[in-house]
Prior knowledge:
Blueprint: E1 16-21, H1 27-31, E2 38-42, E3 57-61, H2 67-74, E4 91-95, H3 97-108, H4 121-145, E5 149-155, E6 160-161, E7 167-169, H5 178-183, E8 188-195, E9 198-202, E10 224-227, E11 229-230, E12 235-236, H6 239-248
Parallel strand pairs: 1-5, 1-8, 2-3, 2-4, 4-5
Antiparallel strand pairs: 6-7, 8-9, 9-10, 11-12
Helix pairs in contact: 2-3, 3-4
Amino acid sequence: MELKIEKPTDMLSRMSMILWGDSGCGKTTLAATAPGRKLFIALDPDGDMSIRNMPDWERVNLTSEKSVDIVKEGMKPDPYTLYNSLAAFDTVIVDSLTKFSEHALRYAVTIAPKSSIESPGLNGYGMRNIYVGAFVSNMIRITGMLNKHIIFITHEKDADRNNDGGVIGVSMMLGGQLPNITSKDISEVWNMRDQGGKRYIAIRPERLRAPMKSRMFDMTGKTAFEWNYNANKLDGATLEGWWQCFVAAGHAKMQLPK
Length: 258
């Protein structure tokens, strides 16, 4: 192996992101504002209904494929043979990682000893985690090689509660330690919520929700900001705009939008 010393200005720059939150909070719409032409890896049935009017995206439709095929192809070094298909695209969006995790569990219980979909056990859940981890790693690697942005959309699970029914935490709907495992190699992990018709993006833990983090925005101040965007008029703040400002500033962390 030959080592190559690079200056920061020589390095390729791309965005890797997890967007997670409740259904209908705007995750897919926000992802559709990412830089350039977008390729959606569509796993959620009708998941793209909210962005049909938005420009510059196409999809690979996996919604009707069998779990075994989705998982086996996703675990290959070149998932779904994407490497030769991404030249015309700038951003890849997996919608959703939650659905891939569900397929991974369905496949895992057919292989794991003493495991069933009703009672996956440690073997079933363990194999699911391996499949999801491999898929995320492969997608990060392939898009990184081609300098493409990568976004994983993930749903929010029901709150974890103590014996008295009090909420002790809320995380991604992935299962077990997968929220932390999948987040470790991602630069942006944002939580979204719709509150009274207003959409908010949180870039660090708040409201008992975690994980969140950001290398794009300053995390020393507020935890969240309101996102104003009209999808019908295609008007408002976008991921592409934030990314362009971040790059133009020499990758210095930005203040949260007001």
